[in-house]
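User: For my dataset I need records formatted as: sequence, then structure tokens, nothing else. Please produce one.
Assistant:
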Amino acid sequence: MNRFAAKTMVVGTVALSSLGIAVGFLLNLPQAIAQSTTQSSELQRLLNTKQCPGCNLRGANLRNANLEEANLSGANLQGANLQNADLEKANLQGANLQQANLSDADLQEANLQNANLQNANLRSADLEDANL
């Protein structure tokens, strides 16, 4: 095989690989947009009604949010920012709070029974009378 043929083969292989990556990205784009839209609507519902059991709020920014007496039972809040949030008397039973930032959050009398708090930041959080 001469050098020209070898270069053409390499360029063709790279082009096909790039095309495959682009097609894969485009095929997954609608799903990513739908998930983002769903998460956004669930976030709005939570902020408007304080009712969002089972919602997917993964990575949501809820810093300083007033969520007193909110129902977030079974919600996915993995990696969410809940710094300084008011979660007094909130229902977080069975919620996924892995890697969530709950620093300075008010969790007085909150129900955290069966919640996943693995690697959550609870620095200076108020857990007085919380159900753990």
